[in-house]
Design a protein that fits this description.
Elements (H helix, E strand, L loop, with lengths): L5 H28 L6 H8 L3 H7 L5 H4 L4 H10 L6 H19 L1 H13 L1 H26 L6 H23 L6 H14 L12
Helix pairs in contact: 1-2, 2-3, 5-8, 6-7, 6-10, 7-8, 7-9, 8-9, 9-10
Length: 207
């Protein structure tokens, strides 16, 4: 049938529209009432969906903040980087581009999300899980670029270390009131991974 190929695309657009409505409702309620006060029932009502729909799309409430449909895009962009580029520089480029775009298009949501990561233990714990999932996905592209197998220990450790360091830099930014520019801070984080920790000269001996 002529119209058959369009159906999956339409379904995906409807799913994306629903996910976006749930996210926007969550951010609005969390900003107005606080994270704990924004219940699944209230989020569903604000997004004009049922509570079961919210749970179907986001099994944990924290996932509404932390899953943003960007993992596949990150994977595609990582694979599109120059083949001879250092894997660390490739990861730096795609993550910094994603953060720059988020700060430009959704600045308030991005700041609220990072603040809640610091303030709400359940959000921070869930972030560790979602970062691990992202890392496992990106391992395939890192392996392709480095000639390893995606399940090699070196690939898993490298990818997890980079994403974990960038996550910690984001937490550092939020803990200090988000006063600095986040993107240069993340750039500096990758430089630290590349150069290692420089030992400072010891200060004068205490009397």
């Amino acid at each position: 049938m002529a119209g058959t190929p369009a159906r999956p695309a339409l379904r995906e657009r409807k799913k994306l529209k629903t996910r976006t409505a749930i996210r926007r409702a969550t951010y609005r309620l969390a900003a107005e009432r606080g994270w704990e006060a924004a219940t699944i029932e209230q989020i569903a009502a604000a997004a004009e969906v049922s509570p079961s729909t919210v749970i179907r799309y986001f099994p944990a409430k924290e996932d509404i903040l932390l899953t943003d449909d960007q993992d596949e895009l990150l994977l595609a962009r990582l694979r599109a980087r120059p083949a001879d580029e250092d894997p660390l520089d490739s990861l730096r480029a795609v993550v910094l581009d994603a953060v720059t775009a988020a700060l430009a298009t959704e600045p308030e949501e991005t700041r609220l999300r990072t603040r809640l990561i610091v303030e709400i233990p359940a959000v921070r714990a869930r972030l560790t899980e979602t970062t691990a999932r992202t890392g496992r996905l990106l391992c395939s592209a890192v392996a392709e670029r480095s000639g390893h197998s995606p399940d090699d220990l070196e690939v898993r450790v490298f990818t997890a270390a980079v994403l974990g360091a960038l996550r910690e830099a984001t937490v550092h930014w939020a803990e200090r009131g988000q006063g600095d520019d986040l993107v240069p801070l993340l750039d500096r984080t990758v430089d630290t991974l590349k150069a290692g920790l420089t030992l400072r000269s010891p200060g004068p001996a205490r009397p």
